[in-house]
Amino acid sequence: MTKKINLFANLKSDFASGLVVFLVALPLCLGIAMASGAPLFSGIISGIIGGIVVGYLSTSHISVSGPAAGLTAIVLTAITDLGAFDIFLTAVFFAGLIQLILGFAKAGSISNYFPTNVIEGMLAGIGIIIILKQLPHAFGYDNDFEGDQAFSQMDGSNTFSALFNIFDYIQIGSIVITVVSMVILISWDNFPFLKKLKLVPGALIAVALGVILNEIFIGSGSALAIGKEHLVSLPVPSSFEEFKAIIVTPNLSGIMNPKVWVVAFTIAIVASIETLLSIEAADRMDVQKRYTDTNKELKAQGIGNMVSSLLGGLPLTSVIVRSSANNNSGAMSKMSTIIHGSLLLISVLAIPVVLNKIPLATLAAILILVGYKLAKPATFIRFWEKGKYQFVPFIATLLAVVFLDLLKGVALGIIISVIFVLKGNLKRAYYFRKEEYEDGDVIHIDLAQEVSFLNKAAIKQTLSHIPENSKVIIDAKDTVYIAHDILDLIYEFKTTRAVDNNIKVKLKGFKKEYQLENSTDIQNYVTIEHYYDAAKRVMVKKEIT
């Protein structure tokens, strides 16, 4: 049963996190638009629609949508091939329609088959990319556009060579503002008396102080003054007519052009995959361990892309960097992403001149801390301790994401995970048996001899449909191998969802090597219900009391 969400229940924390995401999203929207060869304002439009429209329609609590760096190459090539931006918008509209159809076809269920170690490797890889890409901006070297995640950059250099180029373009004023911003951000998270000011996020203080410092540098004629090439660069219409000219609408005459449909299908598939990956990652980051309906997410993304194209915006996806910033800033519900979209809309209409005074160095400091939280050393240690079957896919995904791209990295991680499963676990024949159960019944879940991440979807579905006030016995006495994904899933069910729905869970039969992390309150052993699905290997049986 889906509970009704009160968007205003956590307005204090959601507004603070929405403000932080707005500050992060503004230069990213502009940078991605510039790299895509599209009008700069198209990136802002996409960010606004991703925040307000997709944010409202989505069931994700912390995911943020907007223009994605992963689509820049596709968009740039498509605009060139189609010959006009308005014809490209037609392709974006039909891409959204295709995503809407995929949502109704329940294609979002594919996200259940992304292994946790691969998702964590992707997040850590993105974290490293953020740090490496933002260091040049922190030192005043802004040759690469904001939001770029590719190892090979459009300026001919790469992520590593750009770091060495820093020394030829050091801007002392940028370094000063970066250091001051970092001190504020770290202090805001670690000093108790500052946490009481949670409504005012540290990122806002850092941005405000960065602007003030640079204005002082400029006013005093100091060599520390940061030039406009190192500041946010938002288009500023001088009149209402000029503002109306910014809005481009789709040219539907391109509907009969085969190239339009090729672009539409390409954007729909790539954007959908990136969205599902980001949603799975966002659910992993969510401290409340809430699940997103990925089929509804595809529908929301489809509608978002259709609306964005009608207003002249870029294609959008759920994006990890902004979602990570949202989570790290304490977002509690999807109200934060709606607030970020609303702030984008208000700011570009009301205060574009003020926004253009924000130093990129301050935003670099914010993003570097976001990157660190995604790629903490503790994450590497945790997967190393889990053994090679968890660590190798994790580190392979991370490296491929950094040196290739997100989709190739995830694909490599999944391939390695599947090879390990096939190598270590022979397939066995199982039978399917499922019975209806009611409130108050004792439900037994008995695991098979081998339970891999491929069983995650079936077990997640079973646990999500257990009625309130039930008693669940999860038994793994016959189990030889259990994937860490499944252990994490059971632990999250017992400690969060079961508590919320008054479900009593008894775990038994797990061997010591399959103990749940942080589960000292569950007897050091775990149990699982039988929900055997011929392909999924889980069986459910009922005991009426």
From TrEMBL:
User: Which Gene Ontology cellular component terms are annotated?
Assistant: membrane
Q: Topology with regard to the membrane?
A: Multi-pass membrane protein
Where does this one sit in the cell? Membrane
Pfam families registered for this protein in UniProt = Sulfate_transp (PF00916)
Q: Where are the transmembrane segments?
A: 15-33, 40-57, 69-102, 114-132, 169-188, 200-226, 260-282, 303-325, 331-351, 358-375, 395-422
**Chief site of localization:** membrane
Q: Does the keyword Nucleotide-binding apply?
A: no
**InterPro entries the UniProt entry points to:** SLC26A/SulP_dom, SLC26A/SulP_fam
**What keywords would UniProt list here?**
Membrane, Transmembrane, Transmembrane helix
What are the GO BP annotations of this UniProt entry? transmembrane transport
Q: What is the top-level taxon of the source organism?
A: Bacteria
Q: Which residues form the SLC26A/SulP transporter domain?
A: 11-397
Q: What is this protein called?
A: Sulfate permease, MFS superfamily
Organism field: Flavobacterium xueshanense
